[in-house]
Design brief:
By secondary structure, the protein is α+β, with helices and mostly antiparallel strands. The chain has two domains: 120 residues, no CATH class; 128 residues, Immunoglobulin-like, CATH 2.60.40. Strand 2 and strand 3 form a beta hairpin. It starts with a helix and ends with a strand.
Length: 258
């Protein structure tokens, strides 16, 4: 009899514990729901405040953007290309942030002025270009500059600007132009070159660009990033090769090396 009463009391206590646990769980859910609701309201208010600040800044700098564009056009018409280029770049920075005009068209305009402005060597705002260009290329038995090999599906944005071959390495220098607001560039570690006699040769070193998962920021829409990919030496019997970046559209074919 006593044992039965004990078990009955135990069942009652367990039931009460489960009920209290359920009540606490329900209370906890309600609290979390209220907290999430409050956070959502705060986030919405913060987004609204940021949008309002952005709208005020956009209106504030509209005149500055218009003036820079007007001055740039006038300077360009008068043949003062270097000054015009500087003004277009000034306008581009504002346009990148506030969106007054079509950024792609403005980027194309900036790019087109680098030759008449006598700045074709450094290119439009090249990032750390000095880290890519070597002082001496005499150690390579083959070199071709500005061959302008463009990628299969990204022809307007990336191109090979120099190919160098020696007994110890194959060096491919590329240039990537940013046409968006901001972009991160990187090279997959599986990148390789391939030739008939040499077969597949994997990436050995990079210069001025990150290897995944690291990333290199190209912040402004008119900037160009020049970088070098270095591979083992190709066979002297190979006359051309291809460059492959897995998962990318940066793929090049029939690159001469002889």
């Amino acid at each position: 009899m006593r044992r039965a009463r004990f078990y009955m009391s135990l069942v009652v206590l367990v039931a009460m514990g489960l009920t209290m646990s359920a009540q606490y769980t329900q209370t906890d859910r309600i609290a979390h729901g209220l907290l999430n609701g409050i956070n959502s309201v705060l986030d919405a208010q913060e987004r609204k405040q940021r949008a309002e600040i952005h709208a005020r800044e956009k209106a504030q700098y509209q005149t500055t953007f218009n003036s820079a564009m007007d001055e740039a056009r006038e300077l360009e018409e008068n043949g003062k290309y270097a000054e015009a280029l500087a003004k277009y770049e000034e306008a581009s920075v504002l346009n990148w942030k506030y969106g007054y005009s079509d950024q792609f068209s403005l980027t194309r305009k900036i790019t087109s002025l680098y030759v008449p402005a006598c700045r074709s060597i450094d290119g439009p705002s090249v990032i750390n270009n000095d880290k890519t260009i070597l002082e001496d290329y005499s150690g390579y038995h083959f070199m071709r500059e500005n061959p302008i090999y463009k990628a299969d599906n990204d022809a307007d944005h990336i191109q090979i600007v120099r190919v160098c071959c020696s007994d110890t390495e194959t060096r491919v220098e590329l240039e990537y132009e940013n046409v968006e607001k901001a972009i991160y560039a990187s090279v997959p570690p599986e990148t390789y070159i391939k030739a008939k006699k040499s077969g597949k040769l994997h990436l050995a070193q990079v210069q001025n660009i990150s290897v995944k998962p690291a990333r290199t920021l190209i912040e402004q829409p008119y900037q160009k990033l020049r970088f070098a990919l270095i591979f083992p030496a190709l066979s002297l019997q190979d006359s051309e090769f291809e460059l492959k970046m897995p998962g990318k559209v940066w793929n090049f074919k029939k690159i001469p090396c002889k």
